[in-house]
Amino acid sequence: MNEGKDGTTSSGDEQEDQISEDARKPLSVSDTVLTSVEETSKSPSEEARNAGKDGSHPPQVEVVNSSILEEPNQEEGDVNKNCSSPVEDEMELQTEALMEVSEPSEPLLVPNTNVMNIDTLNEDESSIGDDEDMNEDIDDALDEGYMGIECTLERGFSLNESGIAQNLRHEKYLDIHHDYEPGSPASRYYAALRHLIPVRKKMKDRDQMPVDGTGLYSFASFSWMTRLMWKAYKKGLNEEDIPLCSKHDMADYNSQRLEHLWQNEIKTYGKNGASLQRAVWNFIKTRVILALFFFMWTLAMGFLGPTVFMRYLIAWISTDDPLSLGVCWTLGLIFGELCRIIFFGLVWSLNYRTGVRLRAACMGIIYKKLMRMSGVGDRSIGELINLFANDGQRIYDFAVLGPLIIGGPVVALGGVFYILFLLGPWALFGMLTFLLFYPFQFGISRLTGYFRRRTVTVTDERVRMMNELLFSVKLIKMYAWEKSFAKKISEIRERERVLLEKSAYVQSISLAMAPTVPVIAAIVTFLAHIGAGYNLTPAKAFCLVMLFTSTFRYAMSQVVYSVHTIVEGITAIDRYQRILLMDELTPYVKTTNDKHTAIIIKDATLAWNAFGQQELKKDLKNKRSDPPVDQLLLPKENEGKLNEVLFNLNLAVKKGELIGVCGSVGAGKSSLVSALLGQMQLQSGEVALNGSCAYVRQQAWILNTTLRENILLGENFDARRYYKVIYACSLTQDIEMLPGGDLTEIGERGINLSGGQKQRVSLARALYSNKDVYFLDDPLSAVDAHVGSHIFQWVIQGALRSKTTIFITHQLQYLPHCDRIIYLCDGHIAEVGTHLKLMKEDNGYAGLYKAHMETVHNQEKSKSISQSLPLGLSCSRPTTFRNRVEKQVTADSVASFLTRLKKSGQLNKNSVTAEIKKGQLMTEEKLEKGNIPMSVYKSYIHAAGGYIIASLVILTFAANVGSTTFSSWWLSYWLSAGGGNTTIIVGNETVTSDNIADNPDRHFYQLVYGLTIVVILATSLLRGFTFMKTTLKASSSMHDKVFVRVFQSPMSFFDTTPSGRIINIFSRDMDEVDVRVPFTMETFLQNIWLIVSSLLFVCLVFPYFLFVLVFLTVLFMFIRTIFRVGIRDFKRMENISRSPLYSHVNTTVNGLATIHAYGKQEMFTRKFMTLFDENSCSFYLFNCAMRWLAIRLDLLALSVTATTALMILILRGSVEASFAGLALAYAAQLSGIFQFTVRLSTETEARFTSVQRINNYIKGLLSEAPSILESHRPEVSWPKRGRISFQNVYLRYRPDTPIVLKGVNIDIDAEEKIGVVGRTGSGKSSLGMALFRMVELTEGKICIDNVDISSIGLEDLRSKLSIIPQDPVLFIGTVRYNLDPFEKHSDEEVWDALEQTYMRGKISALDLKLLAPVVENGENFSVGERQLLCMARALLRRSKILFLDEATAAIDTETDALIQNTLKNAFINCTMITIAHRLNTVMSCTRIMVMDDGKVVEFDSPDKLLANPTSVFSKMLTAAESSFMR
């Protein structure tokens, strides 16, 4: 029996009841504890609470007020006053609960000193004063300091100047944004119809896209681009010079429209019958039909010129008709060509906007779909990046070029009728050749589509692998796996290269045949016509030559481009459709009817989607150990199958209740949270939730932004609440250490934060959000004991005291403080109840808790402490921050932090900016200026094989074009020979025949003319083969080089470079180099030779044209030189704007669960839409800039035709009609081909920006030390002993960062077991970074077995060490692949490793056992299971030195104890360094190293450190023990 302070007595059980209540006493509202569904009696905690109100005082407990916005209630009654009857108290509690439900308050994180227990006050009278001082300091700091810049901070973005400008620009999109509303065509087409007004006033707002205010003239001629093009030439373009994306082209608006059409499609045809292709056609059909209308006029004008005006002009030369008639034909030719240029400008202007809108719609709808999914399932992040990177371009090309395929059939049909009219039926043999090209092209397109689909899957696999390598680069480097993974990437790249090569050959044949088929058709036409005995005049011949070589050739080329884009576009649309048809989150979480109940789960069975079974079964047949990722895009037999993990759950939780959840690894704890968040598939039963949610993941999700923005997550900045949250989450000292304070930029995945810091930032985010229900998934696993105690006290018991909290933990010492505890086992709720109740039942929970406490007791036995803590104190809420050592740390850190806040109020703009830059982590991507350097072209030529190879390839183009031009010259020569002076009898007269069919050498002329077909075909195939072989060699060489350079870079490169930027290099830029650079360059080189041959003919016929040619050449080059600057700048900005887009997609996929939990879908969607609109704007302007240049060059090229026609008029009679026709035909051909070639040269240069970016990485990246130094290779058996010596070691991560290790001098003996402890950020993990040479030392050296590790190669060093990281890393593949990626061990050895890490049972239960699939990031295993698999991987490695970085943080205590035993036995002959926050895990170590601020403050055996009560380690252990509940 124990006597209370009021004289009453209570049994041991009653006292334990009271302890259970007092552990939760800070809960002032909703204190009525909800028992399980079956329980109806009052819980022990409630009894204890009522007992306390009757006068029996609770143990010494500090109470933390729960309002985050309200000030402490200074008028709250004294804690010692007697309360009225229990019934009245209960009514009062219910009233308070109802008041809180209607007016929820936010947690205040400062202790309410007026309600502190008197005994606590007596224990440390200074504590109250410290708290009051802290409150005053915070208020003073807010008033004097940050309030001055709070107005800026409330906007929610960083203070660096570029960041402000960018965010202000992004905010403008909100002003012009508008939603799609299905309505009448009149309202929908109003803006587009206004373009038909001939001339409109210029828009005053220069931020708006100028095209929205253009009239017909400006719209068709792209003259609205002139201002931007001129500015680019004069000053160059920056981001602020680019107008905002048009509201009609914005991604959100267009995705809403496509979404509407897609939903109509599903309603009409059902999910299985729905076709995204139909929806896309409905999206673009109006604009496409209008564009085709103008395209028909373009073709008509192009057809009219050679068939009418040119024919009669050439015929006029041989007649005596008046000059005025020749002038009329000349003017008609010029006018027809002018109309063609204008109509064609309208076609492109319409199609460009159609393409931009369709691209935006598809990207937007896919991202929105992503937001409605719980995960990406079997789809990898690499595939998704590919969808946004490469498939977006193909969708655009599909809309722009695809519709122009109609030009080929129309021209062919018109040509048939015209040739039939002009030459008769025999000439149709030539048209037959022309028409046979279509089935040939159809077969080519089928082959292209087949190879394209296969290539895309391999490209996805490569990009996915790259993304995975970037995510795991630290582990890969530490394990010295670079070469092995490089080999794997090379194998994938080789498969991709083979498919690219096959696709390129097929495509090259098509591309080579397109310009030669019209020439061959012309040859066959003339041979058939002449062979039938008919005459051929120059007027007829060269009218057809121009028709074939100009109009028909363009139509054929357009068919090639259109077929290519349609095939790739349809492939992309099908890939989009597969994503759209994936299962979404089915809302199953209902709202509870009882306003006092927060959570209800009734008979619920829940499941996750199954992964990869079908692929792996196929894979077993192929005897591959890793899953064929290229199969991931194909239909799966198991798609839709589910893997049930939670069974028949029943639970009810009242508002304000704290529920502890525990269980062994893989029991379903995290799945329980996911089930309550609606992230799983509900098979049966019901799940209900009342209120908004906050979620702290087991592995913290950190954004690449400032620490402050990570905490705010889009919420408005409230300075007072913000700093109280920071204090509650114990971030004050961490922020003080960051170079830019809380404005320090945090790298992707929190790369520059420790595991504990990331977890506390995630916790601060949840706390700041002020939600109703909190899901905390093991938030204390990554923090040390005293920080964990602080967080539990100030956050879970303090700030969240009035909130419903589901608290998953392996730190079982905190569970007695919970209102109730859930014990999970194999997906079932095995036990639920209060701590006391479950301990009485003595089942699974009791066993787990006892095992945990046994570990604690074993730890205590090794410690010599003269006096024990009183029972009341040991059972009270943790008082970590009331003991003297903690108070000293906290007081110092808070004082320092607040001093910095006060000083910040005096900062001027420059000093603030300087501090922001100081905290900036990510390097900004450099926007290149000026011309593409010649060194870039040289590097590409060297990669292709050198100058000799490049010269030979160019000569194949000359041979191919020369054979086609020779055929035209031979025809002209044949026509000039006429009848060969053959005489014929006409009537009664003998006359000289001018019919070439009568020429005695006709057969010779026909033979030579016919053989040119063979030569043309042979040179075309030779050209295509050599060019594609050479360019693919170049792209493959550059890929291999940039891959090696990137992964030889030090970790500082990956820390400061967003992954999206690197992925951009290996996805979009490599796609440009693989496909688009060769495609553009091949056409460009071909056209260059065509221009040379055309000008050569004109100059040979009209030598005086040389003077005009010089003038026109200067004019052409002037225009190109001036305005290619703008085109190049647009392309560069488009390249740069892609990187943030890909990073955002990557971040979104990794944080889907958190985004859904906080309800931030709209925020992330809005950011995506803004980033995409920025990219879309630069992308659209780049294409418009090229068309702007093309139209002006077309108009100048028209002057070549006009000049040639004028010379024909002037030199009539002095030039034969056949040669005049040849010159005019090729001059007219120049009108289209010249501008196209100049535009191609600019486009080729623009596309070479991708080559430049890759080349910059190849030449500009710094490399780590060599992997192997042949002259300093250690012995094969090194290290034999494993002795480690740190000698005056100083370390900083980058030159501009502070030193993190400061004069470390330690010697670790062979096979010694070292435990490393210390506060988060004290430098523990930096020891591993130094040991593995992830960062080179600033000063000092490290020796292993007397070998200076800086003197040997990195591979020789790292391959001899092993690490089990804090964040477990698993790769996509199989279980076996993850344990033994390079198959160095037998299955027996692998199973033995799994046995030792207690994972054999789990893996054996899987269908495919060792070949069971592992999805991206290992999401189909719990975090604890992932850590155990990583440990099994280390066991297989069998290194002499093992480094464990908090490797058992996510493992329950019981398994942890078993694992520690395994480590002790398996690594008995190894040197082991263990970083741990669970102090009991290092108690068996030989020596303990205590670190603080980068220094070793203590380093001795545990016994000696514990024998000294003043030692830091002893105080840490005391602080940890104060949180244990006996």
Number of DSSP helical runs: 50
Main sheet: strand order: 8-9-10-6-11-12
The averaged pLDDT comes out at 76
Helix residue percentage: 55-70%
Describe this entry's structure for a reader:
The radius of gyration is 39 Å and the shape is elongated. It has 50 helices and 26 strands. It has 1526 residues and is α/β, with parallel strands linked by helices. A six-stranded mixed beta sheet has the order 8-9-10-6-11-12, sandwiched between helices. Strands 20-23-24-17-25-26 form a six-stranded mixed beta sheet. Strands 3-7-4-5 form a four-stranded mixed beta sheet, covered by helices on one side.
Task: Explain briefly what this protein structure is.
This protein is an alpha/beta fold.
List the defining traits of the structure above.
single chain, 1526 residues, alpha/beta, six-stranded mixed sheet, 50 helices, 26 strands, 59% helix, 9% strand, elongated, disordered N terminus
Layout of strands and helices, then pairs:
Elements: E1 2-3, E2 9-10, H1 12-23, H2 44-53, H3 86-102, H4 118-123, H5 126-144, H6 150-153, H7 161-176, H8 185-188, H9 190-193, H10 216-221, H11 226-235, H12 251-273, H13 276-317, H14 323-371, H15 381-401, H16 407-422, H17 428-471, H18 473-478, H19 482-531, H20 538-580, E3 589-590, E4 597-609, H21 613-622, E5 642-654, E6 658-663, H22 669-676, E7 681-689, E8 693-696, H23 707-712, H24 719-728, H25 732-737, H26 755-769, E9 773-777, H27 785-799, E10 804-808, E11 820-825, E12 828-833, H28 835-841, H29 844-861, H30 871-875, H31 884-904, H32 909-919, H33 934-944, H34 947-977, E13 983-986, E14 989-992, H35 1002-1047, H36 1051-1056, H37 1059-1101, H38 1105-1150, H39 1152-1158, H40 1161-1210, H41 1217-1260, E15 1284-1292, E16 1299-1308, E17 1313-1318, H42 1324-1331, E18 1339-1344, E19 1347-1348, H43 1354-1358, E20 1361-1364, E21 1373-1374, H44 1375-1379, H45 1387-1396, H46 1400-1404, E22 1413-1414, H47 1423-1437, E23 1441-1445, H48 1453-1466, E24 1471-1475, E25 1487-1492, E26 1495-1500, H49 1502-1507, H50 1512-1521
Parallel strand pairs: 3-7, 6-10, 6-11, 8-9, 9-10, 17-24, 17-25, 20-23, 23-24
Antiparallel strand pairs: 1-2, 4-5, 4-7, 11-12, 13-14, 15-16, 15-18, 18-19, 21-22, 25-26
